[in-house]
Amino acid sequence: MPEIEDTASSSTATDSSEISSEITLFGKYEIGKLLGCGAFAKVYHARNVRTGQSVAIKAVSKQKVVKGGFMAQVKREIAIMRRLHHPNIVKLIEVLATKTKIYFVMEFAKGGELFTRIARGRFSEDLSRRYFQQLISAVGFCHSRGVFHRDLKPENLLLDENWNLKVSDFGLSAVTDQVRPDGLLHTLCGTPAYVAPEILAKKGYDGAKVDVWSCGIVLYVLHAGYLPFNDPNLMVMYRRIYKGEFRFPKWTSPDLRRFLGRLLDPNPETRITLDEIINDPWFKKGYKEIKFNSEDFEMKEENQSNKCLNAFDIISFSSGFDLSNLFNEADFWVRRDRFISGEKPERILGRIEEVGRTEDVKVRKRKERGIRLEGQSSNFVIAVDIHQLTEKLVVVEVRRREMNVGSSGEIWKDKLRPKLSDLIYKAEAGQVSDNL
């Protein structure tokens, strides 16, 4: 199985000349030195001209992406990064584009790659535990949002100015809607020394269990200073991975030996799970769990007013004329539904709140012309906003953000919306349709 990772393809001088005409990108970011480059992307240090904030800008060549058939992968990476807001994950600030390039504007990790620090020597057990705890916190957050990284390794783990870990590079990540009917992922990907045995078997794999294996490899490298499975002969290395054959350094404590043995269990069925990791005595020492709620991934609120919608607004709301994808095509996990009502906004919102409570849905936030609902396990968010269409009619817009695909769709379509049917405007012949 070939290694799937970016490789340098041009010199620094060539890279600099490519972007020389855009030294100040969109008049907003002042481009600095080249930080790294790959097959179709280059990463630069940049500075926000207005705020002075340092950022990293990943410039992706549209031509190379299209020729290589990676456009879907790039869109997926953007969508994934936009849903992940966690202190141990590199934040995507915004995405810009020209005719030839796509620019990912990201949080700048001043400390560089974790790999660079490990290359200077192994870490103490306590420091290894600290970074592993931060890694697991980030990976657990990804999994709770239906994202599997699939290429966790020290080169993709960055450090900020306070030497805290930041997970980066979601280019090979998968989301739950890529899972096949057998409940497994099937794409062969990853870096050889970090790849899980079940990927080598080519029979499908669980994305969460694969990430746990890679986390185990990272912990071993932090603690030992070298890889558990490594051989110049790739097939020999793959056989060792498949059998789980590795040795512990002599300085490994008994508790860490036991813990690593569970992480690097070649059988995915008996391998330790994320929940078990968090409750393990070795892991729990000094661990502070990070709590999150729906505000960390909630849709941006739009300013509402009592004015009637104009012609452009009405066309934009109409089925077949939804223009949102032109501006927000990466936000594929947001589903929309709309209907017209002749009822007052207060009555509509009151009914939605009442019905939501009977279905065990939490009311997150209530405002004059909108309401936010979320599942008890925070697996979905439903945002309802009401827009004035005419003096007597309103448009009720429902947006659903799903962390587990299908969850909010079922709640809204099967349970909430049917109980609002008497509020939906029934048009007479020649009048506007009741459902946009």
Model description:
This protein is α+β, with helices and mostly antiparallel strands. The protein has 3 domains: 12-107, Phosphorylase Kinase, domain 1, CATH 3.30.200; 112-284, Transferase(Phosphotransferase) domain 1 (Transferase(Phosphotransferase), domain 1, Orthogonal Bundle); 296-423, TATA-Binding Protein, CATH 3.30.310.80. Helices cover 32% and strands 20% of the residues. The chain is built from 15 helices and 16 strands. The protein has helices at 12-18, 62-68, 71-83, 114-118, 125-144, 197-200, 207-224, 234-243, 254-263, 274-278, 281-284, 311-317, 324-328, 345-358, 407-416, and strands at residues 24-25, 29-37, 41-48, 54-61, 92-97, 101-107, 112-113, 147-148, 157-159, 165-167, 174-175, 334-341, 362-367, 370-374, 380-388, 394-402. Strands 1-2-3-4-6-5 form a 6-stranded antiparallel β-sheet. The chain has a 5-stranded antiparallel β-sheet with strand order 12-16-15-14-13, covered by helices on one side. Helix 5 (125-144) runs antiparallel to helix 7. The longest helix is centred in the first third of the chain and has 20 residues, at 125-144. The radius of gyration is 25 Å and the shape is globular. It starts with 11 loop residues before the first helix and ends in a 20-residue tail after the last helix. Mean pLDDT is 76; it is low at 1-18, 173-186, 294-306, 315-333 and 428-436.
